[in-house]
Amino acid sequence: MWEGPQCPDSVMKSDTHSRNLRLHRAKDVPATFFITKSLHPKKPVLNKAARETVTSAFAFAVQQERTYLRAFVVMLDHWHALFALREPWTLPKFMHDLMSYVGGRTSQLLRGHKTSWQDGYYDTFVKTARQFEYVRCYIEQNPVVKGLVERPEQWEGSSASRSDLITEPWPYLYEED
């Protein structure tokens, strides 16, 4: 049996316990996210039209001032993006809207290959300038590393070839490493 510190009964019985946990959460603070969304099971079936659908969803988000976008890539079985949300968007709401559009446009293709978009997504909160640059490079180099192209700008489903969608300069500063 675990003998570590115990929570006082007053905390365990308190209705305000959940609110207290939320007190120190970062809110109303600009945040940059590294997001990965994959097919499940992973199959290399995202053709040029499907990749363009995801790219157009990112373009719409930028044009409608929902996000600041720094990097993205749409691969054959997943996509990555490095972005910050603009007010009043939250990550769950943004991802729901984005994937409702993408899912509707790609569902027939994916059903035909017995795959679908995973239920959730992987998100990482980007905290430092070094992490930001590493993630940007990782995203844009993904098609090169996978042997699909020789140079990042050759992959049509990437920010390396769609600089018109990229936010420069980035609106937020990061702590130094």
Topology overview:
Layout: H1 9-13, H2 17-22, E1 32-40, H3 48-63, E2 67-74, E3 78-85, H4 91-112, E4 116-117, E5 122-126, H5 129-145
Antiparallel strand pairs: 1-3, 1-4, 1-5, 2-3
| Strand fraction | 15-25%
Number of strands: 5
Which stretches of 5+ consecutive residues score pLDDT under 50?
Answer: 1-28
- Give the terminus-to-terminus CA distance: 41 Å
Question: Which key features would you list for this structure?
Answer:
single chain, 177 residues, alpha+beta, Alpha-Beta Plaits, 5-stranded antiparallel sheet, 5 helices, 18% strand, disordered N terminus
Structural summary, described in words:
The chain has five helices and five strands, in the order ααβαββαββα. It is an alpha+beta fold. The protein has one domain: Alpha-Beta Plaits (2-Layer Sandwich).
Quick structural gist:
The protein has 177 residues and is an alpha+beta fold. It is 37% helix and 18% strand.
